[in-house]
Structure to design on (196 residues):
């Protein structure tokens, strides 16, 4: 998280907070959100016919819907589903003989547990399932063949959600996903959401 994120988070957590502590019911109900941030993919070069490991970072963005319910005075549990896209791509070789790996869409389904840490801020952790679709292009003697591959993975993450108004919130989140086959991803995102 950048210094700007930390300053913004601290200001948002305490700006306009009432004197009396709020409970978890302030973070319950259906919600929808959009996010954007850094997406980093780490993988074995064997995927592209090479040796060793590589990593590539670019812009990632997505949308999610979810529902949270209070299970204790300051504790919520919820579920969410999301669709994420990414500009991450890695290329090697040249136009005549080379390869390219592109991260396409990712579908996620996760549960989360959170606790209120200030009157208008929620700290949460999440655990769930991810399905990543990759596109691999292999070019030999100027002839390109393309293959789409779906990878299943386990995701874990943590973040902070800050109420901006009674229905709107800002969030910042880190997420790690292991797709096996030597492929993992790291994401740091920020976003805005609405509770209904």
């Amino acid at each position: 998280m950048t210094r700007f994120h930390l300053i913004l988070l601290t200001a948002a957590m305490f700006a306009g907070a009432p004197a009396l502590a709020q409970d978890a019911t302030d973070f319950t109900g259906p919600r929808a959100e959009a996010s954007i941030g850094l997406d980093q993919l780490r993988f074995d070069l064997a995927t592209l016919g090479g040796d060793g490991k590589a990593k590539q970072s670019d812009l990632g963005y997505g949308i999610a819907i979810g529902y949270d319910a209070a299970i204790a005075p300051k504790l919520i549990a919820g579920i969410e589903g999301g669709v994420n896209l990414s500009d991450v791509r890695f290329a090697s070789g040249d136009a005549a003989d080379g390869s390219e790996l592109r991260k396409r869409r990712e579908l996620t389904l996760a549960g989360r547990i959170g606790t209120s840490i200030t009157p208008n801020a929620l700290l949460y952790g999440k655990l769930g399932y991810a399905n990543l679709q990759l596109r691999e292009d292999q070019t030999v003697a100027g002839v390109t063949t393309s293959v789409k591959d779906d990878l299943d993975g386990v995701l874990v993450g943590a973040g902070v959600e800050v109420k901006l108004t009674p229905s709107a919130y800002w969030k910042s989140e880190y997420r790690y996903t292991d797709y096996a086959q030597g492929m993992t991803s790291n994401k740091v995102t920020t976003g805005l959401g609405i509770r209904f």
